[in-house]
């Protein structure tokens, strides 16, 4: 870690008692409450919190970008290099924006104008704010592209955003933010939409730029591990307030606020031994429309007392502050409640056995997309197989072919003595009842016009599992109880529930069929950290209680490690490594697996990753995959032989197979 | 590119065949006999023999299916046949009148686009404001008012307040542009207003949507002036759906033209169409429908080309 910026230095950006209120349907929503923080030159300050905590709104307020000034009210101060600009007229504010304070947004896919060349979009703020001509702006834009790691910048200047991948687009957005040498950059979840290897590239880049140029960076994120790996200081937000702040080491090692501590324990962590159960925070983050009075966290806090009904004052020590009546005094336990070392299950039978699954998509002009190529794995009876990989690796296609939502090009998948991939129509109905799905986004996978009762009852009646409405009704209540929802929820519509509750409904719907296998397609990636832990514990409980098997598809390795017994790692349509959880996370063999693990931000301060672990470049197109080993174009260990043959799986144990000739 | 044009031309063939078939059989379901109408118009009460002889001369005594294939055979060599009424080639009848109609159509389109883009953009920038309500009322009125009535009101108003009447006679836009423009501008306003109403609404909703796009937020974070953001980022992205609408609504424009030519006594396709209907001159009606279909296909082809010019994501082919 670089030298700590001088704490006494004048802050570049200084936010003091910022309050933001929205008027909505005659009510005044107080979304941001007395937020204060500083950003110094060369410092990376994180603003971390769950959805609805006010982190994005406060930074949009700092940028003065909240869309409708007539319904928004501000108070407080925001000083940039000593000058308060919160009350500047828009015409003057505009001159600061993009020049002195710039922003990088979450969605690189939509943050660029699709009809304008990338070069023009980078030149735009320069031509607006700086006294330079087009030729000079173009020179500088090319230079910026080079600096943010875009190869062949001269040619790329004249391309349009759709010709760039997500990671490359985010580099362009960063180049735009840098274009006028701003004093401060605000990055709002800059890597949330990106894959983990690309995320590491982008954040390494941002951190290097901060240290190199002395710009101050505000990093808004929900991901505590990112904070641990990249930030210097952290501000934890909850219910519109900053409830704890300090240096990253202090806050994450020894959180004082009950919420920070709870959040840290709810995250599955790769740097700690795996806990059998995740610590959870009960309830859900408050909606901005109804922040609780007093300490907003008190309704979910185990230590809350009557005193928590009033707003706690900040406790300020040397370099940190927190607002809690009952602060945590102990050091955070450095491992789960009871590490499950040695408690590895051994599984005898297999519930689903996939062999040589291949799916090609034929496009125009004889082009073939090899979405899935020769994939094999076994799901143990009563256990969980984690299928992990970055976007575009084919995991969704595997799921869709196994559910027969798509047909496979070749291969077989044996389930209960039958090949799913070739089952006839009638057999398929029975198979589908035994294999159920839980989808990623609970807000779009439930029909918004139906009550929960009818959403859950419909498949029961369709499959004839319940003969009458009354019988179905009783079963619905039983199912709701099974997933921990009160029976009254049956009368609700999906929009009247929180994300976590909707995901519970999704699970209840799957359970209704009494399935043997549940395919969980990224079931927790759309949920907040505290809710994610609740859902993962629920899935584990249901598995123990009902003897279910799971195919758990995810991109988050920490989540996969927590829930899986066996893991299959996919890259560009192929499985590159299969192993038990213990084998994979203690001795990863395939260079891709190792790179993936190295890219995951870890809480362990600067965990020493060997240079061989770094992964560069981007996923090649499945239209034209590399010959031989598909990973060789990005592999630090690749040799000439890798281009010649598709590496056959090498067995390291009965359960550990690696498709690489260099291990 | 060439491949794209080729494929579009091939795709146009089944469309044209479908239109030809539908038009032919629909017209023959209609009551009214050309020969009787024509002979009666010459006075007297024609004898049965005379009618039969005349029908035989025009080939109307043939079975319907034979007449149908005769029609298709003509189409294949771009021969639309002769008018049963005047005996002149249908193509000549149509093409002598087409320029006026196309001129009004083009002018109407210009009027419509000139109204729709600025008004739709302003309404979309401030949805729910007084300006927005005013523009939306203006657009609704355009849809609600029949264009012939609106055209008459405009003409009367010009006469009443400015004592101005469009010059009489026919003038070519190329030989005598000023006179021609004076003649054509009123019908173009009457039709263009109506046409613009739909485009305004499309542009408005498209601008509202674009204003919420992430790249507009990026543009604001760059510190660009609102005017620049609207001009450079919002309008180009909002034009795409509006342009599609221009192509689709072209059919409506043609419908309005038929009526407006009567009101302003312009001797265009619309006039010919109404005359031919009242004379039951099927051959001419079929010819007009075929020509208009071809123009409709051409306009939508141009719309697709425009799409590809504006949006780099669209590759023709």
UniProtKB/TrEMBL annotation, chain A:
Domain ABC transporter: 15-264, 352-597
Signal peptide location: none
One Pfam family here: ABC_tran
InterPro entries: AAA+_ATPase, ABC_Ni/Peptide_Import, ABC_transporter-like_ATP-bd, ABC_transporter-like_CS, Oligopep_ABC_C, P-loop_NTPase
Coiled-coil ranges from the UniProt annotation: none
Matching PANTHER family: DIPEPTIDE TRANSPORT ATP-BINDING PROTEIN DPPD, OLIGOPEPTIDE TRANSPORT ATP-BINDING PROTEIN APPD
Similarity field: Belongs to the ABC transporter superfamily.
Assigned keywords, A-Z: ATP-binding, Cell membrane, Membrane, Nucleotide-binding, Transport
CDD domains listed in its UniProt record: ABC_NikE_OppD_transporters
GO terms, molecular function: ATP binding
Name of protein: ABC transporter ATP-binding protein
Cellular localization per UniProt: Cell inner membrane
Superkingdom per UniProt: Bacteria
SUPFAM superfamilies found in the cross-reference section: P-loop containing nucleoside triphosphate hydrolases (SSF52540)
Principal cellular location given in the protein's record: membrane
Protein topology in the membrane: Peripheral membrane protein
UniProtKB/TrEMBL annotation, chain B:
Keyword Aminoacyl-tRNA synthetase among UniProt keywords: no
Record keywords, A-Z: Cell membrane, Membrane, Transmembrane, Transmembrane helix, Transport
Membrane-traversing stretches: 9-30, 104-126, 138-161, 181-200, 239-264, 284-310
Domain ABC transmembrane type-1, first and last residues per copy: 98-307
Cited SUPFAM superfamilies: MetI-like
Record has Manganese as a keyword: no
Listed InterPro entries: BPD_transp_1_N (IPR045621), MetI-like (IPR000515), MetI-like_sf (IPR035906)
Superkingdom as given in the UniProt entry: Bacteria
Signal sequence bounds: none
Name of the featured protein: ABC transporter permease
Provenance organism: Shinella lacus
């Amino acid at each position: 870690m670089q030298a700590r910026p001088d704490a006494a230095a004048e802050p570049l950006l200084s936010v003091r008692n910022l309050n933001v209120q929205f008027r909505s349907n005659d009510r005044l929503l107080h979304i941001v409450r007395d937020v204060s923080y500083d950003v110094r030159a060369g410092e990376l300050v994180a603003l971390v919190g769950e959805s609805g905590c006010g982190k994005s709104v406060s930074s949009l307020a700092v940028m003065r970008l909240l869309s409708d000034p007539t319904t928004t009210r501000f108070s407080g101060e925001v000083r940039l290099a000593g000058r308060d600009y919160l009350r500047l007229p828009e015409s003057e504010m505009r001159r600061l924006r993009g020049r002195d304070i710039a922003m990088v947004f979450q969605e690189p896919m939509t943050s660029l104008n699709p009809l304008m060349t990338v070069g023009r979009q980078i030149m735009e703020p320069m031509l607006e704010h700086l006294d330079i001509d087009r030729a000079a702006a173009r020179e500088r834009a090319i230079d910026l592209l080079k600096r943010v790691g875009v190869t062949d910048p001269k040619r790329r200047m004249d391309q349009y955003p759709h010709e760039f991948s997500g990671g490359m687009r985010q580099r362009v957005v960063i180049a735009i933010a840098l274009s006028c040498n701003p004093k401060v950059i605000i990055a709002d979840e800059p890597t949330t939409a990106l894959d983990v290897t690309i995320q590491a590239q982008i954040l390494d880049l941002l951190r290097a730029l901060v240290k190199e140029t002395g710009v101050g960076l505000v990093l808004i994120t929900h991901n505590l591990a990112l904070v641990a790996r990249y930030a210097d200081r952290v501000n934890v937000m909850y219910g519109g307030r900053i409830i704890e702040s300090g240096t990253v080491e202090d806050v994450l090692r020894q959180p004082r606020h009950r919420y920070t501590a709870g959040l840290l324990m709810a995250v599955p962590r790769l740097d700690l031994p795996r806990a059998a159960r995740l610590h959870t925070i009960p309830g859900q983050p408050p909606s901005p429309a109804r922040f609780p009075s007093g300490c907003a966290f008190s309704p979910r806090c185990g230590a809350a007392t009557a005193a928590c009904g009033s707003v706690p004052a900040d406790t300020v020590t040397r370099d940190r502050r927190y607002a809690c009546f009952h602060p945590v005094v102990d050091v955070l336990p450095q491992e789960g409640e009871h590490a499950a070392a040695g408690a590895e299950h051994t599984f005898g039978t297999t519930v689903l056995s996939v062999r040589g699954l291949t799916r090609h998509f034929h496009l125009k002009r004889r082009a073939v997309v090899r979405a899935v190529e020769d994939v094999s794995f076994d799901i143990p009876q009563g256990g969980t197989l984690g299928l992990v990989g970055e976007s575009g690796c084919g995991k969704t296609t595997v799921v869709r072919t196994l559910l027969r939502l798509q047909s496979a090009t070749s291969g077989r998948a044996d389930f209960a003595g039958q090949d799913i991939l070739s089952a006839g129509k009638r057999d398929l109905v029975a198979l589908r009842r035994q294999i159920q799905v839980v989808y990623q986004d609970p807000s779009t996978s439930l029909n918004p016009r139906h009550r929960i009762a009818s959403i859950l009852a419909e498949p029961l009646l369709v499959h004839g599992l319940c003969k009458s409405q009354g019988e179905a009704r009783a079963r619905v209540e039983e199912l709701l109880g099974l997933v921990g929802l009160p029976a009254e929820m049956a009368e609700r519509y999906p929009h009247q529930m929180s994300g976590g509750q909707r995901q519970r409904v999704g699970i209840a719907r799957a359970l209704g069929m009494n399935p043997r296998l549940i395919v969980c397609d990224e079931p927790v990636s759309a949920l907040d950290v505290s809710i994610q832990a609740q859902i993962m514990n629920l899935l584990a409980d249901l598995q123990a209680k009902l003897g279910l098997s799971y195919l758990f598809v995810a991109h988050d390795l920490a989540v996969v490690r927590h829930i899986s017994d066996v893991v299959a790692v996919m890259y560009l349509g192929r499985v590159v490594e299969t192993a038990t959880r213990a084998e994979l996370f203690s001795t990863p063999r395939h260079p891709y697996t190792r790179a993936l693990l190295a890219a995951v931000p870890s809480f362990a301060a600067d965990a020493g990753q060997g240079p061989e672990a770094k992964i560069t470049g981007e996923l090649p197109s499945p239209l034209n995959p590399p010959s031989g080993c598909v990973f060789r174009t990005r592999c630090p260990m690749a040799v000439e032989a890798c281009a010649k043959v598709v590496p056959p799986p090498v067995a390291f144990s009965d359960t550990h197979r690696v498709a690489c000739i260099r291990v | 590119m060439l491949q794209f044009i080729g494929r579009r031309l091939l795709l146009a063939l089944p469309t044209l065949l479908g239109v030809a078939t539908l038009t032919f059989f629909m017209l023959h379901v209609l009551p009214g006999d050309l020969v009787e109408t024509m002979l009666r118009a010459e006075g007297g009460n024609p004898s049965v023999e005379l009618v039969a002889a005349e029908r035989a001369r025009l080939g109307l005594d043939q079975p319907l299916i034979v007449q149908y294939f005769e029609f298709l055979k003509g189409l294949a060599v771009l021969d639309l046949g002769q008018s049963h009424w005047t005996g002149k080639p249908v193509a000549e009848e149509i093409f002598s009148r087409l320029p006026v109609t196309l001129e009004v159509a083009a002018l109407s389109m210009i009027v419509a686009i000139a109204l729709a883009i600025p008004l739709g953009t302003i309404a979309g920038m401030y949805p729910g404001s007084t300006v927005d309500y005013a523009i939306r009322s203006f657009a609704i009125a355009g849809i609600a008012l029949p264009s012939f009535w609106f055209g008459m009101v405009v003409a009367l108003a010009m006469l009443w307040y400015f004592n101005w009447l469009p010059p009489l006679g026919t003038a070519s836009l190329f030989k005598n542009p000023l006179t021609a423009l004076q003649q054509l501008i009123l019908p173009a306003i009457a039709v263009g207003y109506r046409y613009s109403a739909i485009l305004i609404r499309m542009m408005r909703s498209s601008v509202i949507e674009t204003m919420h796009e992430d790249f507009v937020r990026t543009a604001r974070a760059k510190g660009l002036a609102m005017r620049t953001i609207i001009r450079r980022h919002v309008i180009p992205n909002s034009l795409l759906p509006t342009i599609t609408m221009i192509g689709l609504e072209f059919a409506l424009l043609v419908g309005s033209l038929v009526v407006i030519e009567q009101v302003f006594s312009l001797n265009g396709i619309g006039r010919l169409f109404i005359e031919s209907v009242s004379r039951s001159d099927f051959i001419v009606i079929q010819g007009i429908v075929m020509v208009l279909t071809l123009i409709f296909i051409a306009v939508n082809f141009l719309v697709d080309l425009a799409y590809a010019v504006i949006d780099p994501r669209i590759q023709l082919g």
